[in-house]
Amino acid sequence: MALCAAMPARAQAPAPGGGVPPALADRVAAAVAARWAVAPQAVRLDWGRRPVAGADGRGAATLSDSAPFTLLGRGDGGWFAVVFGPGGIGVAARVRAGTLDTTAVATRPLAPGAALAEADVALVPRVRWDVPRQGRERPAAGWIVRRPVAAGGSLEPPVTAPPPLVAAGSRVRLVVTGGGVSVALDGVALQDARLGQRVLVRRDGRARPLWGTVAGPGLVRLDS
Asked: Among positive and negative, which fits the CA dihedral 157, 158, 160, 165?
């Protein structure tokens, strides 16, 4: 897996046209960082092209570096409202926030059903304009492509998915738990399934299939 470019560490200035003083924008970015529990240096702000009006209605130039403000919203889709003025009363503006992240992209065109090889995946730095994702899995070798992907296209889920831990037709260990007792049986999976997914299995010597949940490679916990 290749890393295509180094990620800059410096905070980004507001987009031209926003007109918010850089020091004030840095304070807003710090507030966003606190809201999202990320490092302030990772936050990027886009104020858009329309100037933010100052508190006296004469334009953004009247906003000082120390102007009080209130940050409103959770940042869904990256969007916040900022009210410049004491006590949340003043001039409101919308700002879109994001964080520097790395995105897995394809190094070549890929067809649905293909299993990723290490050379198929590159990590490129991009701004994610949304609430930061915590603890997510990265597409990697062995993951399955679920839709056509052009070279340079994103490989992030749901475009790709982890490989199944249970494959259709494979032998599996079936675990039944009840009354503090666990019983292990043998069977065959009737479909592909990933960790935590429900799967239909057939117990050895029984014609009627049963439902269970994938608990590990080749391991299925039968529904009680």
From this structure: positive
Report domain extents, the chain: 1-162, 171-222
CA distances from 185 to 114, 166, 167, 193 (A): 33, 16, 17, 19
pLDDT number for residue 6: 41
Query: Residue 80: which of 126, 41, 28, 27 has the closest Cα?
Result: 28
**Which alpha helices (H) appear in the chain, and where do they start and end?**
22-36
Average model confidence (pLDDT) for the chain? 85
For tokens 């100037």, the residue is: 51
Residues in the chain: 224
In the numeric block, the tokens 């906003």 are attached to 63
Instruction: Give the class (CATH, top level) of 1-162.
Output: alpha beta
Dihedral over alpha carbons 164, 167, 168, 172 (to 10 degrees) = -130
Q: What is the CA radius of gyration of the chain?
A: 25
> How much is the pLDDT for 33?
96
pLDDT at residue 12 in the model: 41
* Spans in the chain with pLDDT lower than 50: 5-17, 55-56, 60
Residue 23 in 3-state DSSP? helix
Report yes or no: 73 and 80 within 8 Å, Cβ to Cβ: yes
Query: CA triplet 157, 130, 68: central angle to 5 degrees?
Result: 170
- CATH architecture type of domain 171-222: Roll (2.30)
What pLDDT, on the 0 to 100 scale, is given for residue 97?
97
pTM for this predicted structure: 0.61
